[in-house]
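Exam revision sheet. Question 4 asks you to relate a sequence to its structure. Input first:
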Amino acid sequence: MNSLHLKIQDEKSNDLPAHLKRNNIVSLLKEKFDFENSHLRIPSEKGDGILSKCFHYSAPDQAKELGIYPFFREIQEMQGSRVVIDGKTAITVSTNNYLGLTKDPRVIAAGKEALDEFGAGCTGSRFLNGTLSLHKSLEKELSRFLSREDAIVMSTGFQANQGTISCLLGRKDVAFSDRENHASIYEGCAISPGKTIRYRHNDMDHLEYCLKKFSSVAGKLIITDSVFSMSGDIANLPEIVKLAKDYKATILVDEAHGLGVMGEQGKGVTNHYNLEDEIDIYVGTFSKSLGSIGGFVSGKSKVMEFIRHKASSFIFTAALPPASVAGVTQALDIMIREPIHLEQLQNNTSYIKKGFFNLGFQVNNNPIPIVPINIGDEALTLLFNQLLFDDGIFAGVAVSPVVPPHNAMIRTSFTSSHTHEDLDKILVSFDKFGKELGIISQ
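Answer key, structure tokens:
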């Protein structure tokens, strides 16, 4: 227990209403850690040139001094729902390993076999000397699984979005992007010569307003995550498809957090809504449900052929290593043939969301295993996260600029590997510290 926590306990405010207790704790934190000035407003001292912002950036040091710094924890071991950090075992709710396949013995064995056969890496890009038979085989499997004409395997999911969008969005084109889309989507939009309009999150009226405003533009691309990685919201794909038809727009859907989580055999949100034929470009990642790293884009053959020859992040990046490709191929096969993993994930998601709701936390009523616990104040969120860790719960934390200022959250995510014993322990910790910090009522 750190000294800051002891001081908060000494405040003798247990009898106060939750909101007053919370306000007192936030005031105490701000005396110790001015997040807004240290992080949101980086000083621009003169004399150090372009590196001035680096030398005067104090937020990490302040958080470390208070014992509430949450980032870059060194994981020494991991098995199922447990990790070992600093020699201490904790239940992790900071993972996207939704189907628990990262350490599946069959996935590991496939990776080892590829490592022995092809070596540690491809030593070149897919464009020239880095395309292995493994890559082509996985692309065929993905195309068949998703009923797409073709697919391209890329080195990361980030590059799949960035490369695809930047090469498709021309100077006279306009992209319409949900404000909560992943950073990789905005990077792709930013480096393209086209124009990007950010519509309000999942607001179809605002999207239609934007589309109508640019109705005379021939090249219109609507881009959305299928599942939004911070909020866990599901995109309104049926309405997006309708608007795309009305305004003659193309649709790109990033199924990073939908693949393996929703739809028949885990095919994603597009399948859940029976809209596969309406989605022009399907982007996905291997770093969530398929337990590895890498990404892919899929669609019509002519579109994929264009991207293969035009996407800089694909052409100028070393190919995905053989062991990763083989592991993903095996994980995809397991996901397709063993629905028990998805069923267990959905059961765990329902159980934990009901538990959080009964404690007084606001959670989304959907089948997505991303469960953000919204706190608001950044320093209070960091403290809450540290108390959870001290209690054996390893959670994720999202503060500005990952989320808007004063919208900080504990981002929890759940897998098929969690047991009900794990989930009950998680709920006990959130209940205890949520009440202690005035986040929920006694």
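Marking note for examiners. The first strand starts at residue 75 and ends at 79.
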